[in-house]
TrEMBL record:
It holds the Pfam family Zn_ribbon_NrdR. This is Transcriptional repressor NrdR. NCBIfam families: transcriptional regulator NrdR. PANTHER family: TRANSCRIPTIONAL REPRESSOR NRDR. Its cofactor is Zn(2+). Binds 1 zinc ion. Belongs to the NrdR family. A zinc finger (unnamed) spans 3-34. Residues 46-136 form the ATP-cone domain. It comes from Microbacterium radiodurans. Keywords: ATP-binding, DNA-binding, Metal-binding, Nucleotide-binding, Repressor, Transcription, Transcription regulation, Zinc, Zinc-finger.
C-alpha cells in the first residue's frame, strides 16, 4: 500500500477493526518514511457472472434497485431494502465462492423478500421465474397459503 502523502511503497498497520456489517476491515496505517497516518478499507471481492458472460463486482445497490421495482406501492422502506440487500450479500458470500451467477442472486433474494412482503415477492418471482400463465401465479399463491397454514395462525398478516 503506497503512502498517499509521500508515495513510499511501504506502510505498517497500527490498528485493525471490522466494519459494522462485518464484511470489511478498516485498517489504520502509518508510513515509516514520513510518519503520515491513513486508513484503508479491505473487503473480499465478490463478482457476479451475468447471463451475457460479463463479470462485474457485486452491488447491493443493484439488488435494492431490482427489488425496489417489485415493491412499488407496497409498505416497504429504503431501510427494509438495505437490510434485504445486506442479507442477500451475506447469503451469497456464505457460499464461499468469489464469483456468483445472477441466477443464484435471484434465488437468494426470494427468501428474504417473501418474509418482507408477499405481494412484492410474487411480483419479483413472476419476472425472475418467468411466469407464463395464471397457473404459475396460482401455484405460487397456493405455496404461500400452504406455508401459512403449516406455520400456524400466528404467521398471518393483520391485527390479532
Amino acid at each position: 500500500m503506497h503512502c498517499p502523502f509521500c508515495r513510499n511503497p511501504d506502510s505498517r498497520v497500527i490498528d485493525s477493526r471490522t466494519s459494522d456489517d462485518g464484511l470489511s476491515i478498516r485498517r489504520r496505517r502509518q508510513c515509516p518514511k514520513c510518519g503520515g497516518r491513513f486508513s484503508t478499507i479491505e473487503t473480499a471481492s465478490l463478482n457476479v457472472i451475468k447471463r451475457s458472460g460479463v463479470i462485474e463486482p457485486f452491488s447491493r445497490e443493484k439488488v435494492m434497485s431490482g427489488v425496489r421495482k417489485a415493491c412499488q406501492g407496497r409498505p416497504v422502506t429504503e431501510a427494509d431494502l438495505a437490510v434485504l440487500a445486506q442479507a442477500v450479500e451475506e447469503s451469497v458470500r456464505q457460499t464461499g465462492s468469489s464469483q456468483i451467477d445472477t441466477n443464484e442472486i435471484g434465488l437468494a433474494i426470494l427468501g428474504p423478500l417473501r418474509h418482507l412482503d408477499e405481494i412484492a415477492y410474487l411480483r419479483f418471482a413472476s419476472v425472475y421465474q418467468a411466469f407464463d400463465t395464471l397457473e404459475d401465479f396460482e401455484s405460487a399463491i397456493d405455496q404461500l397459503r400452504a406455508d401459512h397454514h403449516g406455520a400456524g395462525a400466528g404467521s398471518t398478516h393483520g391485527a390479532e
